[in-house]
Structure formats: C-alpha cells, structure tokens
Write a structure and sequence with these properties.
The complex is a heterodimer of chains A (about 450) and B (about 230). In chain A, helix 2 (about 15-55) runs antiparallel to helix 16 and helix 15 packs antiparallel against helix 16. The radius of gyration of chain A is 32 Å and the shape is elongated. Chain A has helices at about 1-10, 15-55, 65-70, 80-90, 130-135, 150-155, 165-170, 170-175, 235-240, 250-255, 275-290, 300, 305-340, 345-350, 355-390, 415-445, 445-450; strands at about 60, 95-110, 115-125, 160, 210-215, 220-230, 245, 265-270, 295-300, 395, 405. With about 450 residues, chain A is of the alpha+beta class. In chain A, strands 2-3-7-4-6-5 form a 6-stranded mixed β-barrel. In chain A, strands 10-11 form a two-stranded antiparallel sheet. Chain B is of the alpha/beta class. In chain B, helix 3 (about 105-115) packs across helix 4, helix 3 (about 105-115) runs parallel beside helix 5 and helix 4 crosses helix 5 (about 150-160). Chain B is globular, with a radius of gyration of 17 Å. The chains are: A alpha+beta (about 450), B alpha/beta (about 230). At the A-B interface, helix 1, helix 14 and helix 17 of A face helix 2 and helix 3 of B.
Chain lengths: ~450, ~230
C-alpha cells in the first residue's frame, strides 16, 4: 500500500499545473462550504443565545396555558410559584440550572396623561436581578456583545419601555429620544369645559409617568401609574412598539389586585442547552411527585421561529454543498480522465508485468484521494484564516428572527464536526470522481493500452 | 532433450476492422525450449507482435492451444493470468516502457513488489541485476535521465529480476544504434546463460539472428518452417 501511495503521489506531480487546479477547485469549494457552514452555525448559536438570554430554555406554566392561556389568562395562574421555584432550586438538577425566575405577562392600554396619548401594550412583570443574570448567559462561549437591557431601573420600581412605544406616546423630551411627532394641540386644551372643574393641572404631572390599564383576572380594569426610567430598542418592531417591562409586583397588583402573589410563567434558564430534554424530564417527574398540574414548554416550542430559520439556512447549506460537491466531482473526474488518457501505455506495461485490474484502479483512486486530501486540507486552512480574520475584524450584523446586533463571529473552530464533515465530503467526492476513469483504465485490453504513444 | 517452456499449437488470431475479419495468425504452432534464444522474423504486419502478445498472455487467441510452463492459458481468469504473467513471463518492449515516476532501482524492483517479495530479498536481487546489467551508480536516476541503451538495460533487468521462465522481447534493438544493440544482445545472452531463461524475440535485424537457437518466419500470419541464417 505504501508503494501504491508513493507511485500515486508522484503521478499527481507529473502534471503539476493540472493537479494544482484540481486542488484549488476543491479548496475553493471547501472554503465556500466551510464559511457558509460556519455562518449558519453562527446564526444557530446567535439566535439560540439571544433567545436563551431573553426567555430562558424552559417555561413552566399551569397545564393548558401554552395553548389556551392567551384567552383565559386568569385560569392558568400559579399561586404556588414560589414553592415551585424553591423545589426546582432544591432538586437534583439544581446544578444544571442557571436562573429560575417568575414572570407575569400582561396586556392592556398605556397612556401618558401629560401628552394625552395612549397605546396598547404588551407588558411583562419580572425580577430585575434574575433577568440581569439571564442576560449573562453565554452557553456557547460566543462572547456576544448584545445590547444591554437596563433592568436596573426596575429595581427602582420604575418601568422600561420599548423605544417605538415611547415615541408613539410622544415621550421623546423626557426620555431623551428623537422622532416624536409634534402634537398640534396642547392636551390641556382638550379638556371638556363642562368637566374642567374636575380636571387636574396637567402641568403638575410628571412627564415620564404613564398610566397602565389592564383587564385583570377578575373584575373591573385596574389602573396603576408607572414612571418610565429608560427605553430599550428591540430589533423586532412589533416588540419595540408594544413593550413595557415593570417590577413583578406592579404587574401582579395590576392583574390580580390585592391577591397579587401569582404569576403565569416560571422561566428556567439552563447552563447547558443540550440538557434541555433531560432536565425537562426530571422536572416533570418532580412535578408529578408533588402533584402539581404543570406543563413545561421548551425553547423550540415557545420560539418556533428558531427552528424555521435554522431549517431554512440548513437547507441552503446542504444545497450549496451539493453544488460544490458536483463541481468537485466534475473537476477531479476531468483531471483523472486526462491522467488516464496520458498513461494508457504505462497502464498496459504495468498490466503486462502482472498488475491486476484492481491494482490499476487503486492507483487512480489513490491519486483522486491525494488530490482530495490536499484540496480539502488547503480549503480548511484558508477557511480558518478567513474566519479568524473576520472574527477579529469587529464586523457586526443582526441575525434573522429579530435578535440584536452582534459581532460577526464565524463558528468554524468551535464546530469541529462541520470541518470533519466538509473535509470528508470533499475527499469522498474526489475519490468517487476518480473511480470511473480508474475503471476505464483498468478495463482496457492490455494490447490496446500498449499501442498508445 | 531440452524442456519446453512454451508450447503453441494451431493458434489462430483474428481481428475485426469494422465488419472485415483480419486473420493475423493462421494455425501457428511452435515450441520454445528452456534457456533458448528463439527468433520470430517476418515483415511488418506478418503477425510477429501478435504471436508475442499471445505468448506473453496479454492477448487471447481466437482458437488453438497455448501452454506456458505447463499451464494452459485458456483455463485462467483475468486475475490468474495477471498473477501468471507476474511470476512466469518477462516483457521487453521496443520503446523500453519504463515507469517514468520510478527511478532506475524502483523500476527494476517493481515486479518483485507485485509478488510481495520481502524488502531485504528485493534489495539483494535488484542490486544483483543492477550490477549484472552494468547500471551501478545510476540507481536514483529517473528514466528521463538515462540513455536509450541504459533504458533498455533497465528493461532487461526488470524483465529478468523475477527470474521468469520466458522473456519476450519485441524488437528490443530497433530503437538503439548498432553498437548499443549488439551490447544489449550480448547482455541477454549472458543472462540466458546465467539464469537459464528462454528468450523469444521478434526482429527485423538480421545481424542479431546469428545468436539464435531457433528462428521462425511468419509470412502473412502463417509460420514457415525454416530460416536460412
């Protein structure tokens, strides 16, 4: 075998330019495949990191909430959420868990009395310290520079508003924003004279305070005031135009009134996302033992766009890789065919000396493999250099599905399976493409082969 | 009585050019004794090369019987024929047909590699033939760095290194000047004596016929009985 490799290797050097072109074709194919694969990986990990930071990996609700909760929120609240959190923190899986935190999603109308503006909103009551810790999650070691969400303000019993919502409410001046429309009338002039005696002095109001009205779990709407301390811009306009984060207690008092110790979601953020399935099972067992009728929703269920985006990019990757494989197949096949044609006489000589048909095939297949190995290895090296250069260049981009702007990090070295797969694919394509010319060479009658000059 | 290495009986070989049948050999019979110098002479197109190809087991007769070293060739499949060629038959070509990517030593060594001879034994045998053919000092040279005569010496060493029963040489001196051609024939005579190998030549060169033990003449694919040296 060593001798066959030696002879095949020397044969690859007989026509250096042709071999070089084949090696380069494979290398370029490899570079394209690897960089695309690394980019897709970057999207995969980028989106997953973004979702993990914002929403965690497991959402625990009262059974049925995920499917029907949007219409019947009050029926699916969890009064014992503190017990649930405590049990999770004491469970066997506690070392696998990064954060367990309660949240309460609410919706209603927000108005700014000073500006005389109002808007529907989607709000979330949360524990700021837990959310801050969640934002530190970096399970894939990406070190992404995702825009900080200023949760600190929530610890001061204030609210955080989407930039789009703040602009629509005309709160530019107090929140230091640009882009608000100038109101045509002063809101004080809109007060009906008949009720002017009941009107309050608008000028005395804090401009940054908004009134939030929520249809509660039971009874008449609740209204509460909330000072908005900061805005935060989400990449998703639909979120940006509706979002308010507030202290959990504020949301609870709005939604449940005096009976406010309830939430509809307990969010669990894991240290290792790969263990989602295992931890979900463990928690399900725990809840069964406790007799709690709870459901656990995983990231791929509560963020279905994640899978869709990934399958799209995965398909693009496979499609491009197949095209590259076909190009490699034809390029190497062409090289090997030329090589066979130039060596008919040599093939005849070797056969006359006693080399079997398989022996002839073996030489050409090994040649194809050598070209493939060199091309694929060169491709990996070039891709590594390009990926490293891009990763150190500080370029930023926004992944699809509304994630925040982040550094463009091509996940190449972090993804050894991608490198191995592309390398093996290229070498295999090269070997396959040398098989037909090799077969032709080995099947040639010896006397015909010897006649060629 | 000398042992017979090759026995050909009533061999015919036909080719087709389109639908036209070309009868290259017609009922040819011959016997090659062990350790002999046998010459096949004839004009171009007389069937010399075809006969050598059949003797060398690189072509199959249309009809007739060929036995080399006691083995009936028609009973062998392709792999067995390859192995048989590797063990029992040496080829020397008019254009030397050395493997261009192998140096002199490796070209001579190659037939032994095909027979899986151990490295130590290979080295000893190859060096023996390099010395016998006067090629010492040129071991690392590629064929492109050798003269015609040197290349033919390598081809002879390569054909003989596995110590075959029979060596077939298709016009081995045709591409050499007369002096070098004479040296090559002389070398083959030495080899014949040393290794008791039978040589079968096809040639136009009347000068070398004086060394022949047997001479067969082919005329239009038919064997004539005698040749006047």
């Amino acid at each position: 075998m060593t001798n066959s490799i030696k002879i095949a290797f020397r044969n690859t050097l007989r026509n250096k330019r042709r071999t070089l072109l084949s090696v380069l074709a494979i290398a370029i194919g490899g570079v394209a495949s690897l960089l695309l694969g690394a980019f897709v990986s970057s999207i995969y990990y980028g989106i997953q990191t973004g979702i993990s930071k914002d929403s965690g990996h497991l959402h625990i609700h009262k059974n049925g909430f995920f499917k029907y909760g949007i219409a019947k929120v009050g029926q699916y609240d969890m009064a014992n959420y503190l017990d649930i959190i405590q049990e999770i923190k004491n469970s066997d899986t506690k070392d696998e868990i990064s954060v367990v935190t309660p949240t309460l999603s609410i919706a209603g109308i927000v108005s700014n009395s000073y500006r005389g503006t109002s808007q529907t909103f989607m709000g979330i009551g949360l524990v700021a310290d837990d959310q801050k810790k969640m934002q530190e999650w970096d399970g894939f070691g990406l070190n992404l520079k995702i825009q900080d969400i200023p949760f600190d303000v929530i610890n001061d019993k204030k609210g955080l508003m989407g930039k789009g919502l703040a602009i629509n409410l005309g709160m530019c001046e107090e929140l230091g924003l640009d882009g608000c429309l100038k109101s045509e009338k002063n809101s004080t002039q809109e007060v009906d004279p008949e009720i002017s005696s009941f009107a309050i002095d608008i000028s005395s109001l804090d401009k940054s305070v908004v009134d939030i009205m929520v249809a509660p779990a039971q009874g008449a709407p609740n209204i509460s005031s909330l000072a908005i301390a900061k805005v935060w811009q989400s990449r998703q306009k639909t979120v940006d135009d509706r979002f308010i984060a507030m202290p959990l207690e504020v949301a609870q008092s709005l939604f449940y009134g005096s009976d406010y110790k309830k939430v509809n979601t307990v969010t669990v953020q894991l240290k290792d996302v790969q263990k989602t399935g295992q931890i979900k099972q463990n928690l399900q067992k725990l809840f069964e033992i406790k007799g709690w009728n709870l459901e656990i929703i995983t990231l791929s269920e509560f963020a279905p766009q994640f899978k869709k985006v990934l399958s799209m990019f995965g398909f693009i990757f496979i499609f491009v890789s197949l095209i590259i494989a076909v190009i490699v197949l034809f390029t190497v096949s062409n090289t090997m065919t030329m090589s066979v044609m130039e060596r008919y006489k040599e093939i005849g000589t070797l056969r006359s000396m006693g080399l079997r048909r398989w022996g002839v095939k073996k030489y050409f297949i090994i040649e194809g493999a050598i070209i493939g190995v060199f091309g694929a290895t060169l491709g990996v090296t070039i891709a590594y250099i390009i990926a490293t250069t891009i990763n150190n260049s500080g370029l930023t981009w926004s992944p699809p599905s509304g994630s925040d702007e982040q550094l463009l990090i091509l996940q190449l070295t972090q993804n050894p399976m991608l490198i191995i797969t592309v390398w093996v694919l290229l070498v295999t394509a090269s070997v396959i493409s040398s098989f037909l010319p090799a077969k032709k060479a080995s099947n040639m009658p010896i006397i015909d082969a010897l006649r060629y000059n | 009585m000398l042992e017979t290495v090759a026995n050909i009986q009533k061999v015919c070989k036909s080719y087709y050019l389109g639908k036209v049948e070309i009868k290259a050999l017609k009922q040819v019979s011959l016997q090659v004794p062990s350790g002999s110098f046998t010459f096949i002479v004839g004009k171009s197109g007389s069937g010399k090369s075809t006969l050598l190809n059949l003797l060398g087991a690189i072509d199959i007769p249309t009809s007739g019987y060929i036995e080399i070293n006691g083995v009936k060739l028609s009973g062998l499949n392709d792999n067995s024929l390859s192995d048989f060629r590797g063990e029992s038959i040496g080829h020397i070509f008019q254009n030397f047909n050395l493997i261009p990517v192998l140096n002199l030593y490796e070209n001579i060594e190659y037939p032994l590699l095909l027979q899986n001879i151990p490295k130590k034994e290979r080295k000893f045998t190859v060096n023996e033939f390099i010395e016998a053919t006067g090629l010492s000092g040129l071991e690392k040279h590629l064929p492109s760095e050798l003269s015609g005569g040197q290349m033919q010496r390598v081809a002879i060493a390569r054909a003989l290194v596995k110590k075959p029963s029979i060596v077939l040489a298709d016009e081995p001196t045709a591409n050499l000047d007369s002096v070098t051609g004479g040296e090559i024939i002389s070398l083959m005579l030495d080899m014949k004596k040393q290794y008791r190998t039978a040589f079968v030549f096809s040639t136009h060169d009347k000068e070398i016929l004086k060394e022949a033990d047997d001479i067969y003449t082919l005329v239009d694919g038919t064997m004539e009985d005698s040749y006047d040296k």
